[in-house]
Write a structure and sequence with these properties.
The chain has one domain. It is 22% helix and 43% strand. The protein has three helices and ten strands; from the N terminus they run E-E-E-E-H-E-E-E-H-E-E-E-H.
Length: 159
């Protein structure tokens, strides 16, 4: 979806979380390696770490994940947006967030037998220090989040 220099990207499965390093990881999960590599090589790779913003807009039993960044190389502003159910992993990420986290990339693979799924985690990552956990009433403070959510809602109405 594209509007006024903003490309809204929703073609990722969701988020995974990893807690083993010094900083927690929020992993964008993709169904295909091609999509994952395209997003990394054409967009996120070009974002300076200090220009990346992650917003979690919290509702009752869900949250909206909003990721965006600035780049002097890219013509458009890319915004990654996905509504997700609140989970124990999300709550743990929020509790353990200490002022910085890594944005990473993972390929989702269906599980075998007793294992529901597997994640192939790629080495691509960006350190993100501008992360906010917002209530829906606080969204007006971030114009990019407000605009992205409106574009998504307008496109749903047009469909």
């Amino acid at each position: 979806m594209k509007e006024e220099g903003i490309v809204l990207y929703t073609n990722f499965l969701g988020l995974g979380y990893r807690y083993e390093d010094v900083h927690t990881h929020a992993l964008l999960m993709f169904k295909t390696k091609k999509d994952l590599l395209t997003v990394w090589n054409k967009v996120v790779k070009w974002w300076p770490d200090d220009e990346i913003k992650i917003r979690f807009v919290e509702g009752d039993n869900y949250y909206e994940f909003v990721l965006y960044g600035e780049s002097r190389i890219l013509e458009n502003k890319w915004v990654f947006l996905k509504a997700l159910k609140t989970s124990e992993n999300y709550q743990r990420f929020k509790d353990e967030y200490d002022g910085a986290a890594y944005l990473g990339f993972a390929l989702y693979k269906p599980g075998i037998e007793d294992v529901p799924y597997q994640l192939e985690i790629f080495k691509y990552r960006k350190k993100v220090t501008d992360i906010q956990f917002l209530k829906e009433t606080e969204v007006e403070e971030d114009s990019m989040v407000l605009k992205s959510r409106q574009i998504l809602r307008d496109s749903a109405i047009d469909s």
